[in-house]
Amino acid sequence: MTPHFDLIGLIVTDMGRTLEFYRRLGLPVPAGAEHEPHVEITLDSGLRLAWDTVDTIRGFDPGYTPPSGGPRAALAFRCADPAEVDRWYADLTAAGHHGHLPPFDAFWGQRYAVVHDPDGTPVDLFAPLTP
C-alpha cells in the first residue's frame, strides 16, 4: 500500500494574522482558533489543512529554524500503520532523499517521520499508534 496524502501543514509566525487571511478566502476556520498553537480544518475534499506556530514545531523538533527564502510548508502522508512509516522512511532515504527526523512515537499518538523532497520541502509520514 502506498501512503495516503492527508494533510497540508503550514508553519506560522502570527497565527491570528494567518487565520484571518485564510478566513478571507472562505476557509471554515473556527472562531477563537487564533489563540491556539495548532489549528486544523477538514476541506470539502476530505484533505486537511493545518497551521502550527513555530513554538509548536519546536516542541518536537527543538532545532527547527524558520527558513529564509525556502519552503514554509510541509506535506503530510498518512500511512496504513506505524510499520509503514518506518518502511517508507527507509525506502526514501535509501533512494538518496534527506531524512530530517527518523521515525519516532510522537506524544500526540502517531508514529512520525520527516523526509525532504528534492527541493527541500518537508514531507511528513505518519500513522496512528493505535488503530
Characterise this structure.
By secondary structure, the chain is of the alpha/beta class. It has one domain (4-128): 2,3-Dihydroxybiphenyl 1,2-Dioxygenase, domain 1. The protein is built from three helices and seven strands. The chain has a seven-stranded mixed beta sheet with strand order 2-3-1-4-7-6-5. β6 (110-116) and β7 (122-128) form a beta hairpin. The longest helix has 13 residues, at 82-94.
State the gist of this model:
It is built from 3 helices and 7 strands; from the N terminus they run βαββαβαβββ.
- Neighbour order of strands in the largest sheet: 2-3-1-4-7-6-5
- The share of residues in extended strands comes to 35-45%
Which CATH architecture would you pick?
Roll
Distance between the termini: 17 Å
**String of helices and strands:** EHEEHEHEEE
Uncertain stretches: none
- CATH fold title: 2,3-Dihydroxybiphenyl 1,2-Dioxygenase, domain 1
Mean pLDDT: 93
CATH superfamily: 2,3-Dihydroxybiphenyl 1,2-Dioxygenase, domain 1
Instruction: Tell me the helix content.
Output: 10-25%
